[in-house]
């Protein structure tokens, strides 16, 4: 199976930039792993939008999968209490 391309939105990049470096490094590792397997164990489809989430500790990575183009679009990254607020 070919690898998916990863795109990180400006919003998600800003959220990553605000996090401490050790946490950012771990989350970036998980994001890159999505290129090999966009539907890892524990991923969930979000209600009310065409997006998925994976949970890593207290943090969530919200993303869309575009299978036809082999693209993963990272929408948001952050702690649970902040991540699900509608923008």
Set down the secondary structure blueprint.
Blueprint: E1 5-8, H1 10-18, H2 21-33, E2 44-45, E3 52-56, E4 59-66, E5 71-79, H3 80-83
Strand content: 25-35%
First CA to last CA: what distance? 34 Å
The succession of helices and strands, N to C, reads: EHHEEEEH
Overall, the morphology is globular
Parts with pLDDT < 50 across at least 5 consecutive residues: none
* DSSP helix fraction: 25-40%
How many helical stretches?
A: 3
Would you tell me the structural class of the helices and strands?
A: alpha+beta
Count of beta strands: 5
Largest sheet: 5 strands, mixed
Task: Kindly report the average pLDDT value.
Answer: 91
Which strand order do you get reading across the main beta sheet?
1-5-4-3-2
User: Rg to the nearest angstrom?
Assistant: 12 Å
What would you note in describing this structure?
The chain has 3 helices and 5 strands; from the N terminus they run βααββββα. It has helices spanning 10-18, 21-33, 80-83; strands at residues 5-8, 44-45, 52-56, 59-66, 71-79. The longest helix is centred in the first third of the chain and has 13 residues, at 21-33. The chain has a 5-stranded mixed β-sheet with strand order 1-5-4-3-2. The model has no long low-confidence stretch (mean pLDDT 91). β3 and β4 form a beta hairpin. It starts with a strand and ends with a helix. The protein has 87 residues and is of the alpha+beta class.
Compact overview of the structure:
The chain has 3 helices and 5 strands. It is of the alpha+beta class and 87 residues long.
């Amino acid at each position: 199976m070919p690898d998916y391309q990863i795109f990180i939105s400006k919003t998600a990049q800003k959220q990553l930039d605000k996090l401490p470096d050790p946490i950012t490094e771990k989350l970036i590792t998980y994001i890159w792993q999505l290129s090999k397997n966009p539907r890892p164990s524990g991923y969930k489809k979000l209600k009310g939008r065409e997006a998925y989430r994976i949970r890593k500790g207290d943090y969530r990575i919200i993303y869309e999968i575009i299978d036809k183009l082999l693209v993963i679009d990272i929408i948001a990254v952050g702690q649970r209490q902040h991540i699900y607020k509608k923008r």
